[in-house]
Amino acid sequence: KKDDILAANRVVLDEYARREIAGQLDDLSEVVGRVSVAPGAVVANSVIRGPVVIGEDTVVKDSFIGPYTAVGRSGILERVGLEHSVVLDNCHLSDVELIEDSLIGYNAVVSRANGRRRACRLFVGDDSEVVL
């Protein structure tokens, strides 16, 4: 269940997260706390507040990644706010002001259509696409 996975993620990040920046971090980005950026990952013009884990070959651009968030490998996060969430491999998230308390499955696409809602809560399965 989503809530069980998010609770387990919180425990794991509390216990094991440490500051380790192996990927690329530009001068416009701010990293605070226990943040792990894996090799091949790129963080550009973004704020990352730990504990957070960013997987290999993931691109984070113009985004805020908040505490208790784990992002898998080979994803793209553009203009996204993300907190207390787990995002699995190969996901593309764009133009969503705030995603919180969410579990996003493999290969999912989450993007914003025209609208005014600021926060959303998601349980998105593998190979899904969500347009907000």
Question: How would you briefly describe this protein structure?
Answer:
This protein has 132 residues and is mainly β. The chain has one helix at 2-16; strands at 20-21, 24-25, 30-32, 35-37, 42-44, 47-49, 52-54, 59-61, 64-65, 69-71, 76-83, 86-87, 92-100, 103-104, 109-111, 119-120, 123-124, 129-131.
What does this protein structure show overall?
The chain is mostly beta strands and 132 residues long. It has one helix and 18 strands. The protein has one helix spanning 2-16, and strands at residues 20-21, 24-25, 30-32, 35-37, 42-44, 47-49, 52-54, 59-61, 64-65, 69-71, 76-83, 86-87, 92-100, 103-104, 109-111, 119-120, 123-124, 129-131. The strands form two sheets. Strands 2, 3, 5, 6, 8, 9, 11, 13, 15, 16 and 18 form an eleven-stranded parallel sheet that branches. The longest helix has 15 residues, at 2-16. The chain is globular and about 35 Å long. The two termini are 23 Å apart.
